[in-house]
């Protein structure tokens, strides 16, 4: 593993290469690649470069010096992310504006790429075994950011949050994204080390009455996305 972090100039060069004719416009953006790699290095089993590199570069990759340079930089980025998470250093998400005139950043694309990266190491929920509910709670902020959580709630006929409440929840998750990334990494490290996750009281199911006594379902009360982390 290479521990040398990419400089700002090297990251700029990587962005330039990904947008070059070497990949015919089919490579992932740097934000998507970073998110995918955060999931890849966090998951239940090792994902070989032969799996994630083609996803990063897309089918348009043309052999040549630019492609080789980009691959070398991406391998270093992979190792840098893995080392940062192992050392419990926060990974600052690479984020692009939603459009050129907007001050809002595209967290949804980042979260979507993270969820995609989860699938490169098999079925995370199956691998989590008895701790699948814990994993679901840790991943829920990602599903909030990419819109999948709202789609699922509305498809089930349940009430979604008001616009103001949703905006508050999204802002909290955005601010806490580095910690969420670290928590997911730590979850799988605990699983790999066969550390038992202990609870002081029985785990409430997502559709069970909330143990706080509110009368609401757990997922609508203490299990809401803003209370997961």
Major sheet size, sense and barrel closure: none
- Average of pLDDT: 87
State the low-pLDDT regions, or none: 195-203
Terminal Cα span: 31 Å
Number of β-strand runs? 0
> What letter string, H or E per element, gives the SSE order?
HHHHHHHHHH
Determine the fraction of residues in helical runs and give it as a percent range: 40-55%
Helix tally? 10
Give the overall silhouette: globular
Structural class: mainly alpha
| Fraction in beta strands | under 5%
Whole-angstrom Rg: 19 Å
Offer a concise description of the structure:
The protein is mostly helical and 229 residues long. Helices cover 54% and strands 0% of the residues. It has helices at 8-18, 30-42, 49-57, 65-86, 107-118, 124-128, 132-145, 148-155, 163-175, 177-192.
Q: Key terms for this structure?
A:
229 residues, mainly alpha, 0% strand, globular
What features would you describe in this structure?
The two termini are 31 Å apart. With 229 residues, the protein is an all-alpha fold. The protein has helices at 8-18, 30-42, 49-57, 65-86, 107-118, 124-128, 132-145, 148-155, 163-175, 177-192. Residues 195-203 have low confidence and may be disordered. The chain is globular. The longest helix has 22 residues, at 65-86.
């Amino acid at each position: 593993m290479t521990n040398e972090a990419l400089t700002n100039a090297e990251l700029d060069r990587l962005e330039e290469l990904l947008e070059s004719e070497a990949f015919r416009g089919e490579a992932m953006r740097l934000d998507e690649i970073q998110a995918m790699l955060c999931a890849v290095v966090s998951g239940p089993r090792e994902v070989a470069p032969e799996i994630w590199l083609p996803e990063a570069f897309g089918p348009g990759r043309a052999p040549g010096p630019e492609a080789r340079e980009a691959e070398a930089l991406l391998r270093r980025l992979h190792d840098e992310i893995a080392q940062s998470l192992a050392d419990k250093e926060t990974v600052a998400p690479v984020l692009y504006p939603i459009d050129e005139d907007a001050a809002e950043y595209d967290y949804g694309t980042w979260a979507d790429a993270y969820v995609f990266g989860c699938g490169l190491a098999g079925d995370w929920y199956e691998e989590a075994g008895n701790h699948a509910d814990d994993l679901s709670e840790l991943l829920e902020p990602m599903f909030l950011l990419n819109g999948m959580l709202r789609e699922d709630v509305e498809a089930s006929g349940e009430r979604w949050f008001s616009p103001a409440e949703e905006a508050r929840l999204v802002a909290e998750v955005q601010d806490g994204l580095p910690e969420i990334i670290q928590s997911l990494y730590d979850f799988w490290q605990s699983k790999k080390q066969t550390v038992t996750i202990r609870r002081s009281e029985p785990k409430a199911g997502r559709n069970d009455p909330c143990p706080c006594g509110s009368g609401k379902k757990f997922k609508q009360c203490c299990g809401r996305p803003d209370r997961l982390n």
